[in-house]
Q: What sequence folds into this?
């Protein structure tokens, strides 16, 4: 049974995937925003020796924006210094009495919080942010639209997202180990930048084939919260993955998503992350421009130190 996604599902998705731990109250004072200086001692000796050409790319997550004013929110973020706009594309969830199809069970890969409810839930394949939203937003901005697909069948969305105006297409390694070569080829053929994402529980080694093949991805997104669980904080252990990637691939774009803000940016930047997704820490700030500036400055300073 197909049902149109409800506002409550969008709000739930917002809470699930945008889990920045920093409260907006702590952002009110400029002193707080500038309290994360990064020093030479925070950079590992291995990273300090390595050349790097990557620059900071700050990507406010539009899932934390005011959906009723998406175009103006995008314009506002770009005017504040955002480099990219991060678009989370996920399956809408509608809970009701019913059954769970085989496809719905597969979707639990990305929504493990609902595993215990599987016997009484019906999941529908409706996107909270999909190609129509991307296409509508593209009419109002020339910004880089960084699309992160939390779906089990990313190959099905390459053509429609390309036509909609997506700039980057990041899929999950957990659902693409058998067809990633075809997927990357199609993404590049449509003029989009291919990226691969991995959940906290996925070994970093799983993405190596996608970086070392004849037609590699161009970015790795390390999730720093677990998709499917709300109220989470930044997981510091994920920085080991970032550090490993930066040491192995010095010029790779490495993105981090989940719990990023002024209180966590130093740790992410010093590990080697250069693409920063930030939702509530930017949109909930009293001065979003100052937060974006702090994130960017911290990353660029870290990258300068590792050259």
A:
């Amino acid at each position: 049974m197909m049902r149109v996604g409800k506002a409550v599902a969008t709000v739930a998705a917002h809470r699930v995937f945008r889990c920045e731990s920093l409260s907006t109250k702590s952002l009110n004072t400029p002193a707080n925003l500038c309290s994360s200086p990064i020093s030479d001692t925070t950079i590992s000796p291995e990273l300090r020796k390595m050349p790097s050409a990557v620059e900071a790319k700050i990507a406010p997550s539009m899932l934390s924006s005011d959906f009723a004013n998406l175009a103006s929110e995008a314009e506002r973020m770009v005017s504040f210094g955002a480099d990219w706009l991060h678009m989370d594309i996920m399956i809408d969830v509608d809970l009701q009495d019913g059954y769970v199809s085989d496809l719905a069970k597969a979707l639990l890969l990305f929504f493990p919080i609902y595993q215990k409810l599987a016997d009484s839930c019906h999941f529908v394949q409706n996107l909270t942010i999909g190609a129509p939203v991307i296409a509508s937003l593209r009419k109002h901005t020339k910004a880089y639209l960084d699309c992160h697909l939390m779906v089990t069948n990313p190959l099905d969305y390459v053509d429609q997202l390309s036509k909609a105006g997506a700039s980057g297409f990041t899929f999950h390694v957990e659902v693409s180990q058998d067809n990633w070569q075809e997927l990357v080829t199609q993404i590049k053929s449509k003029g989009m930048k291919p990226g691969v994402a991995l959940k906290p529980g996925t070994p970093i080694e799983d993405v190596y084939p996608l970086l070392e093949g004849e037609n590699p991805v161009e970015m790795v997104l390390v999730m720093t919260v677990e998709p499917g669980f709300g109220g989470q904080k930044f997981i510091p252990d994920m920085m080991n993955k970032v550090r490993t990637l930066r040491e192995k691939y010095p010029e790779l774009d490495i993105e981090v998503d989940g719990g990023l803000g002024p209180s966590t940016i130093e740790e992410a930047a010093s590990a080697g992350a250069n693409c920063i997704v930030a939702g509530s820490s930017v949109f909930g700030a009293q001065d979003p421009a100052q937060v974006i500036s702090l994130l960017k400055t911290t990353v660029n300073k870290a990258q300068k130190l590792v050259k």
